[in-house]
Amino acid sequence: MDDQQSSPPSADGVSPGELGDFLEWRDRVRGTNISEKTLLATDYLNHFNEIVMLIEMIPAMPEMMEECLSWQPRDYREHFRESGFSDRDLAIAAYEHVPARFRTPFEDTIARGHQVVAHTLERLAADLRSGDTAKLEADCQASAAIIHRVIQVANGIIHGTTHVMEQAEIDQYLGSR
Domain ranges in the chain? Predict the structure, then answer.
């Protein structure tokens, strides 16, 4: 028998210090719409899908801008508190146990997404005031594309990848006019 102590193996890159808690919560979410790999739920992305849908409607229905302006950024817990998601209480509780490997890039991506939406709404409001319908349409398309990119990255994190958007990608969008 070996006297050396070995650390427990990590699962999915989860640090040994988080492993026991993670494995317990992974068992709790099994069979739900919450990822066993990360303890995150893709339902949160509906928060961004909603604003994308509204933005895409603006060129044909400029009055939708008012609806867009009523959209508010919500963090993960807020979204689930206000949602009809069947496992919402479990999603909120599990979030406290998401390993840092996934939680940090997820929260960074969501913060960038909220920043992109705020910038988008300012840009589209200016386009509407200017009356330049071609610019409005182009900005709506570019805005929807970058928000879809945020959704894509967040979805990847929810499913176990840790790729985040490059700050240069966001900066390029935020700096374009």
Answer: 16-175
